[in-house]
Each structure stands twice: as C-alpha cells, then as structure tokens.
UniProtKB/TrEMBL annotation:
It comes from the Bacteria. The lineage of its organism: Bacteria, Bacillati, Actinomycetota, Actinomycetes, Kitasatosporales. Pfam families: Glyco_hydro_1. Belongs to the glycosyl hydrolase 1 family. It comes from Streptomyces phaeochromogenes. Keywords: Glycosidase, Hydrolase. InterPro entries: GH, Glyco_hydro_1. This is Family 1 glycosylhydrolase. The keyword ATP-binding does not apply. Signal peptide: none annotated.
Length: 469
C-alpha cells in the first residue's frame, strides 16, 4: 500500500497525541517532556506527509477542586491557563479531557460514580472550565474512558479491592453516561467553541472457530462493552438481554428524562483501541485449546467472563508484542467497520485514540528504538483503516497515547487480556484484586427478573473483512 493512498484516505483527518498528564499539575522537568510527541510527529510526517498539530491533555479535576464544589485551587487554574497558552504559541490545537479515572477525594468519600450527585457536580465542573477556557480549547473530551471507572472498577473490581460489587455496580455506568450528557449541555451553554465528545474503549475481535456459539460469544463480549455504553448514547435506551431485561435499568437507577440527556448529540466520539480478542463460548474451550492449557486459560479474567457467556483465548500462530498483544494490523479497521455496521449514520465523527503498540521493548539489534519496524506496523494498520474510511466510515481524527500512559493497566492486565503469552514464558501472575479471587463479579444478588439476563440479543451478522490493503 503506497503512502499516497494513505495521504488521500486521511485527507482532512486531525492528527495528534493524547497524554494523561494533568495540565493542572506542576510540570515535570523539561527532559521528561515532549519525546513521544516528537516521535509520533516524525512517524506521521514520514507515512502520510502531514505534521500533527493537535495535543490533548487532562484538566485534572482532583487538583482543580481538591476541597469541594466551588473550592478552586487558583494556582492549578493558573497552570492550566499557561499550558493552554503555551500550546497555542507552539501552533498546536489544544484538546482538553475533563475526567481521567480519578475523582476528587470529596466525591470519592460520598460514593463516587455510585452516587447520582456526581453527575451534577461534573456538569458544574465542566461549565466552569468551559467559561474559563472555552475560547482556546478546540476539542473537549468529557472522559478518557467511560468503562474504566465504572464497569472495570465498580462492577468487576479490577482496580480498587473491595469495589467490585457485580451488577449492583451497574448504576455507575448510568451515572457516568448521565454526567457526559449533562457536561456536554453545560459546555455548550457556557459558550465553549470547540468540538465536544467523549471516549469509549472500542472492543473487537474474532470468533475462535466457525461454530455459531463462538460467534454469539463474540457478540456477547461486544454487547457488554461497546453496546453497554453506546446504545444509551446513540439509541436512547440501555442495552437489553434477549429476555428483554436491561441489567442497568434493573438496578433502579434510571430516572425519567435521563436517557434523553444521555442521548445529547455529540460532535465527535473518541474510540480508544487496545487489542483484538479471540473469543469462544466457554463450553468450546476444550475444542479450541489443547487439554493441558484449558485450566490455565480459566484465569481470573475468564472466571469473570464465563459468567457472561464468553471466554478469551490466544490467537494461533500470531506474533505478539512483549506484553502479549497480538499484532493483527486489520483488527482496528474491522472493529471500526463493525461499529459502523451496528449504528450506521447514528455514529458521530470518530476519532481513534490508539494506544500504539503497547510495547516498551521494540528495539533493533543495537538496542535503539526500531523506527522502521514501528512505522511498518503503523503503515499496515493505517492502510486497513484507510479502506474503511474510503467506504464512508467518518473518521475525523487519529491520536497516539504515550507509551508511558496507563502503566498500571499495561503491567497488571494487558497480557492477561490478550491471553497470548509465548509458550517458553511462565504465565503472568500480577497481583489481582481479591474480588476476582473470591468469585465472579456478576454473582451478586440482583433485583427480581434480572437474574436470567446474561444471554444477550445477537447484533446481527458480523461484518466481513474490508479487504487486504
């Protein structure tokens, strides 16, 4: 695939870098800043012939309001002002993320995302930042990730031991979606001039076999990830099971008018991409894996997932990164195409927030960064994505995360997610929260009528591959 094709396919796409650094925080020493942005800029200039000019950072809610609503840290606000002005002076378009996993301590103490009031406080926070910075920010992202602080933390207990309460934690999903709708409305009311949207973690993959139950298992995975957040935003209704039960609504957290707020139109939607999955029905594990590997595959991750009707297995004969992420260049394009097939014109313009290779060890024989290898893999991924764009999928932006961002998830979970550790290496045994060892996160009691709601509505025929670049 020629770079000329890449240039034509991505004409009009905004290129940039995303970083989790909070601009409200004191800046780190100069040598620690800018390296990843320059590397990413050089890669895109080489491949596409354009210079990325967008830079997105996190506002830093815990630093800006450490002591309660209305109690602002003036020094932190000043640092935000200076950082935004510095980006503009460099000719960069500032993007600002309002929330990145961490709430202010006073909100955590009052229940965090389990408390409905958190959505109202977030809207007030967004309104004030829109008033202060609305003339300088070109892209507003309400949250780095909707699933991490809700589904992963309060439902599955992945991050904070003791917080994984199963389906009783599903109100957090509703509340963060409500917060996104309220914040979007508040930013517009405050006169913010930039595009407004949020970020969801895009989940995609392939059935392990041609068995229809493996295909159904993949649809269950995508329903409990993509549809759980996007059905309310784009369809105005919470995801339901094939028994017409909504696991979120069954908790009693939905109030009249909430879904209209959640469905507030977005100017763009960020898709954070990690890695593709190879998915099977739990009963098919003995057919997918050699018998001596079945038990090892039922680790803490799959012990949770099998309760929802699917399991994750390694890809066969696929090269991986040092973290165990499979190198499948077409996987991102396939996942984006599947999402477009599901929602069609209801999807707002998409900005791919790519975690890159997720690999600290991509070096050549001299021990230096292997630029040629990295760019070859990026070119392959962009070539596949370019074909999806050419077929009408509205991709408006593409950003890289810094390789140093989100290290906790990388070191604790990514290899377990990918389930693709080389045979010559011992399986990873990172410390897992006690919630995952005691039992499945979805084993907690639920309201009457919701207990059977684990088999999900199939989402229709799976999208075909968009063709090799």
């Amino acid at each position: 695939m020629s770079d000329g094709f890449l240039y034509e396919s991505f004409r009009g796409v905004d290129w940039g870098v995303a970083t989790a650094d909070a601009i409200a925080a004191p800046p780190p020493p100069p040598p620690e800043r800018g390296g990843h942005f320059r590397q990413w800029t050089d890669d895109i200039r080489q491949l596409v012939g354009v210079t990325p000019d967008a830079h997105r950072m996190v506002a830093g809610w815990p630093r800006l309001q450490p002591d309660g609503p209305g109690a602002w840290d003036r020094q932190a606000l000043d640092r935000c002002d200076r950082a935004l002005d510095s980006l503009l002076e460099l000719g960069l378009k500032p993007g600002l993320t309002l929330f990145d996993r961490s709430l202010p301590p006073w909100l955590e103490a009052s229940g965090g995302w389990l408390a409905r009031d958190t959505a109202e406080h977030f809207a007030a926070f967004a309104a004030e930042l829109g008033r202060r910075f609305g003339d300088r920010v070109t892209r507003w992202i309400t949250s780095t990730d909707l699933a991490g602080p809700t589904l992963a933390d309060h439902v599955a207990g992945m991050y904070t031991p003791g917080r994984g309460i199963g389906r009783a934690g599903l109100p957090t999903v509703h509340h963060i979606l409500l917060a996104n709708g309220l914040a979007t409305q508040a930013l517009r009311a405050a006169g913010a001039s930039g595009l407004i949207g949020t970020t969801v973690t895009l989940v995609g993959g392939y059935p392990a076999t041609d068995d229809p139950f493996d295909r159904l298992a993949l649809e269950r995975l995508e329903s409990w990830t993509n549809r759980l957040f996007l059905d309310p935003m784009l369809l105005g209704e919470h995801m339901v099971t094939e028994d017409d039960v909504s696991p979120v609504e069954a908790t009693g957290c939905v109030h009249p008018g909430d879904l209209e707020i959640i469905a507030t139109a977005q100017d763009m939607l960020g898709l954070s991409w990690h890695t593709p999955f190879r998915v099977t029905a739990p009963e098919n594990l003995p057919h997918v894996l050699p018998a001596d590997k079945c038990l090892g595959t039922l680790n803490e991750v799959n012990r949770l997932l099998v309760g929802l009707g699917f399991a994750i297995t390694p890809f066969d004969d696929v090269e991986t990164t040092a973290y165990g992420w499979p190198l499948i260049p077409e996987a991102l394009a396939d996942a984006v195409a599947d999402l477009h097939d599901l929602y069609g014109e209801l999807l707002p313009p998409l900005s791919v927030i790519d975690n890159g290779m997720g690999d600290l060890d991509l070096v050549d024989e001299t021990g230096h960064s292997d630029d040629a290898r990295r760019r070859a893999l990026l070119r392959a991924r962009l070539s596949w994505l370019g074909r999806v764009i050419a077929r009408g999928v509205p991709v408006c932006g593409y950003e890289y995360w810094s390789v140093l961002d989100n290290l906790e998830a990388k070191f604790r979970y990514t290899r377990l997610y990918a389930m693709a550790v080389p045979d010559h290496e011992p399986p990873p045994r990172p410390p897992m929260p006690s919630d995952w060892v005691r039992g499945g996160a979805f084993a907690s009691p639920v309201p009457s009528g919701a207990a059977a709601g684990l088999t999900l509505v199939p989402t229709g025929p799976r999208a075909q591959s968009v063709g090799a670049p």
